[in-house]
Write a structure and sequence with these properties.
0% of the residues lie in helices and 47% in strands. It is mainly β. The chain is globular. The two termini are 32 Å apart.
Length: 258
């Protein structure tokens, strides 16, 4: 294991690029809202991306190329390319937001306050959204959003510890899940399993909750995790995932027991 430090800037949101030894990450120090392209090989900054004036709360890499998006509390979404530090596009939205690409990299979604999700064609985003979904019944701020690998479903997490499973084509709410709130109001990440059959999320009581995406029923609750597992990441092509709190844990679930 290799440990790298960012004592000056701190680390908030982070994601891998298509280069296995490079990541992009946003700052957590509250005074510098730019984010950075970092080489993990030699701990060297390759590029800085400046433009946001408040904290970056969402960061998403395109699954197909070097494009990526950032969303900020300054109510803007910025589109970027790793090969240039010049912003490639700008969208203005309301409230706290979350951004996500579909698995083809052709469509991206922007979720915002009031349960609105706007879908854009990545090739003509300047023409505005081609569709808008309204997820009624919850006016909490958005904490996160993801597409399933087959592009048929979406996950929407809110700051009041709710997770919604949506039909990605119609925006229809398929299921809703409730988590125990975190004491320090930490946002909790929800994720699809690679085959899309399950939704998993950490809960404020320190447990991991697993639901069937088909029935919406809870199929497992695992409690042997240290701290609150705020981050859940699946391996792209294996039935294995990692959770992070103040420790990093790796899991291989026995699906025959789900």
């Amino acid at each position: 294991m290799k440990t790298l430090y960012s004592a000056r800037y701190g680390v908030d949101h982070i994601c891998f690029t298509h280069h296995t030894n490079a990541v992009i990450f946003s700052s957590s120090n509250g005074s510098d809202e730019s984010f950075r392209y970092l080489s993990l090989y030699d701990n060297r900054f390759l590029r800085y991306f400046r433009g946001h004036t408040q904290r970056v709360v969402s960061l998403c890499m395109s699954p197909k190329n070097d494009s990526f998006m950032s969303g900020s509390l300054d109510h803007t979404v910025r589109l970027w390319d790793l090969r240039s530090n010049v912003c490639q596009g700008l969208l203005r939205v309301r409230g706290r937001l979350s951004v996500a690409y579909d698995q083809q990299g052709l469509v991206f979604a922007v979720a915002m306050e009031g349960g609105a999700i706007k879908l854009f064609d990545g090739r003509s985003f300047d023409k505005g959204p081609f569709d808008t979904f309204l997820v009624g019944g919850d006016t909490a701020e958005v904490a996160g959003m993801k597409f399933s690998n087959d592009g048929k479903m979406m996950l929407l997490s809110t700051t009041n510890s709710r997770v919604y499973l949506l039909d990605a084509y119609s925006g229809k709410k398929m299921h809703g899940f409730t988590l125990k709130p975190s004491r320090d109001e930490e946002t909790l990440e929800a994720s699809f399993s690679p085959d899309g059959r399950y939704v998993i999320s950490g809960s404020g009581d320190g447990s991991l909750r697993i639901w069937s995406s088909l029935s919406g029923a809870e199929v497992a609750c695992w409690t042997n995790n240290a701290g609150i597992p705020a981050v859940v990441k699946w391996a792209p092509r294996r039935l294995m995932f990692a959770t992070a709190s103040y420790v990093l844990a790796f899991w291989i679930p026995d699906v025959s027991k789900l």
